[in-house]
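User: Hey, my collaborator sent me this sequence without any context and asked if I could get a structure. I don't really work with proteins. Can you help?
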Amino acid sequence: MMSDLYRQYAGFVIRHRKSVVALLAVVTVLLCSRLMSLQVDMDQDTWIPQSHPYVQTTKALEKVFGGRNFTIIGVVPKSGDIYNPQVLAKVQRIQEGIENLPDAIRHNVMSVAARKVKDIKANDSGLVVKRVMEKVPATPQEIEAFRRAVESNPFYVNSLVSPDGKAAAIIADFKVDTSKPSYAALYSQIKEVLDKERDDSVDIYVGGLPVDFASFESHMMQMPIYFGAALLIIMAIQYWSFKSFQGMLLPILTAVLSVLWALGFMGLIGVHMDGMNTTTPILIMSVAAGHGIQILKRYYEEFHRLRLSTARPDDREVNRQAVIESIARVGPVMTIAGAIAAITFATLATSDVSVARHFGVFAASGVMAALILEMTLIPALRSMLRPPSKTEAAAERSHKVLDAILIRLANGLTGGRAPLILAAGVGVIAVIAAGASQIQIDNSLRTYSRPDSEVRVHDRELNARFGGTNTIYFLVEGDKTDSLKDPKALTAIAELQDFLAAQPNVGKTQSIVDLIKRINQAMHADAADQALVPPDRALIAQYLLLYSMSGDPQDFDSYVDNDYRRAAVWVFLKTDSTNYAEQLHQKAEALIRDKFPPGVTVRMGGSLPQTIAGNQALTTGKTKNIAQMVLVVFVLSALILRSFVGGLFVTTPLVLVVMANFGVMGWFGIPLDMGTISTAAMAIGIGADYELYLLFRFREELQRAGGDVAAATRQSLVTSGKAVLYVALSIAAGYSFLLTSGFAFYSRLAVMVVATMAVSAFAAIIFLRAMTMIFKPRFIFGANKPVLNGAPLRESRAQ
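Assistant: No problem. I've predicted the 3D structure and written it out in structure-token form, which is a compact way to encode the shape of the chain:
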């Protein structure tokens, strides 16, 4: 029998316990030596599928026009407007400071003090192009001339200068070192430039993607604090569970080592840490501690039974035999459940999104590490420790309130109320799952921060004064050189800009068309009705030639390439919602198809569309991943239980838990994003453990009780059922401390994990047990007729 093999194995571990502990220590040291290889990876490319059209467009935009890390800095005088020498001098110094940063894309750093920001006018000799601010204006006359230059070029209003003139902006773009990306380091450099200009005369605000990612990164760096807090919470739960220091020590030691092994393995294979994976150590620790509970709960049971059944017990020998027997009883199901959980998580390695792959590898390696340690370290150390005293053993079994609840539930299940309980359970889950119809697929880095955080405060201030702190880009491409000198193509771009500017949350659009319109207007004595695209291709070419005679060749680098085959349309948004950006693109597609001439294509890109790509890949792939995970659990469970029905019994509650998981998100308004989407995988990977522990324990107790269903139900619930509750409580409590982080990415994840663990435990203890009582499957009851209080149960059995 399987249990005999595990008895032999446990005996071997105990006989060689010192060697086992020494070997595990060596492995721990070797894996911990790889911890320094771990990197916190904030590179967007590793978070998104590289084949997605938005990603391909972004790479094309980046290659031609620069980076994708748009940043806006606002300088706001505390009194008056920007038209005074002191404020403009600050803008000029910030412009120069940002340009000189190592990661800055110089031609994409713009303010009224930038070289490429030009005043376009005409005179009798032709077109006159000169810098808006050659030097800081000092006299009232120079200030007034500067004001007229800004106001006569609408291109700069609402982007570089607020419409009321009371704020000036520096727009910057950066390339981040992809070998070791750190937005926190970049933001620190930006702040160093800005801090030199902060004083009582101005407020300085900064926003954009690098700021959002820097905030994310800073919260990631606080994860050791959250991990430590989760560790203390789980230790408290373990102590409450076992009422002894020994009972607390072994699961916690196993849990911490499991995390270290998994982290070391990640370093060994070169998988980086990312935003999703920063909380995975808490998951691994919680799961490992939970498995430790299962072993030690069984150990205390066996120790108590052996002590009572031995006439003159030697506690040291009883201790050794209890360790062997607990491994023999729990080892098979723990191996099966752990392997299924690990394989289930590992299936995420097929995901198109690296964060999902990394999560799968990390969680799978952590579960496997926990399984190895629990089957080696716990029996080795438990056999070395002093046996529990009678007081400790009695205290461990003393959970009167919880036991009473579980016994009452068992009586209800075996007292003819199982159909009612099952119907009520299905009803509860159905109500919860109904919320899935309201779920939204969205990702907003900014909303991860508290409303009163510096990130959100600065963002509100900047959005109130300028076009927006977020950008998307439309890449317009012609099929030949000078395609974008065609009036039809330029007019189509103008119509696209007008359409976009009329949409809510769009504050400003910019393109080469705005400059051409301004040139045409200047050449027509600044007539308001001449701010349009000339209908003559030759005239457009002539305008551009005239501009080049007095302007710089690089002035248009942010908007069109040298061959006039590719152009970028900048769209400034007041929101970073991926859902909104996707809807905006869908609305624009009809106009693009209708207005742009043959040979000219338009596609969307930028950092926000890249996030959309990641979200789409996660959500569309999630259906496949969930189906894949459920199938793996079904096949493995059916093989282990040697029953098709057994596979259904394990997976049916898991499907309901996943449905409830999405329902909770819908009811609570929690969006489906890169953080919350991982909880469905947790529900399957961990929920399968619960089902298997309870099924195996019920089958064991049924055999021990001679087929008495009532006795088997009561005993399985107050043993393995109680342990399942402790495991769920450990995981939920471990994550619950994240609710205090003030970082929505973590707090949303915490809410989902707590809800998922509650529903998973409910499904395993109530739903699964009710199914067992109603259908009486043969893989549990065997060929013998089940009995209840000595009388045969009604025959209604699943094959």
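In plain terms: The longest strand covers residues 470-478. You can pass these tokens on to your collaborator as they are.
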